């Protein structure tokens, strides 16, 4: 982790402006192509949930702005950020889940499977993120092909990226899925969101 030197930071004027706003977050939703994941990987037994989670975390870790967080007047940048997905539990509820990001798919897949299985045993919602800010919050809505989303935040200094994805839809032999990303505008702009979608697509296209 490093602390950004704001005196020589090209983003300083944008940072100062958006830090002054009471609602500094922005949200974008766009479709990605999951044809290879659905038609090639899934029939081989690959979990589509694990696959999508890997793709979005792989993308987030490639973008410095997705690894940056606000700490008072400081901005820190983590070397890597880690998944914090929601997991369904009994009673139409969900629990939070945490595990360390692994850049290689096989390692990530195993860690994700273990963490999800453990999270499903929870009976109440417990927030385990209070002592760390190197997380990316994610959620899956497989019942709905949504076209927008807004996530709750803890306040104007909450800089955790939020990522959500929805129902797979087939059109003329191609499968798509909506992906939403919500970011703190003091740290990231539409350009960084666009890179996130580019890198997510590149990761999804690697599945066989």
Q: Based on DSSP secondary structure assignment, what is the total number of beta strands?
A: 10
Poorly predicted ranges: none
- Rg estimate, integer Å: 17 Å
Shape: globular
H/E element sequence: EHEHHEEEEHEEEEH
Portion of residues within helices = 25-40%
Beta-strand percent range: 25-35%
Mean pLDDT: 95
Question: How can the largest sheet be summarized?
Answer: 7 strands, mixed
Taking the alpha carbons of the first and last residues, their distance comes to 34 Å
Number of helices: 5
| Sheet/helix structural class | alpha+beta
What does this structure look like?
Helices cover 29% and strands 27% of the residues. It is an alpha+beta fold and 208 residues long. Strands 2, 5, 6, 7, 8, 9 and 10 form a 7-stranded mixed beta sheet that branches. It has a 3-stranded antiparallel beta sheet with strand order 1-4-3, with no helix packed on it. Strand 9 and strand 10 form a beta hairpin. The radius of gyration is 17 Å and the shape is globular. The two termini are 34 Å apart.
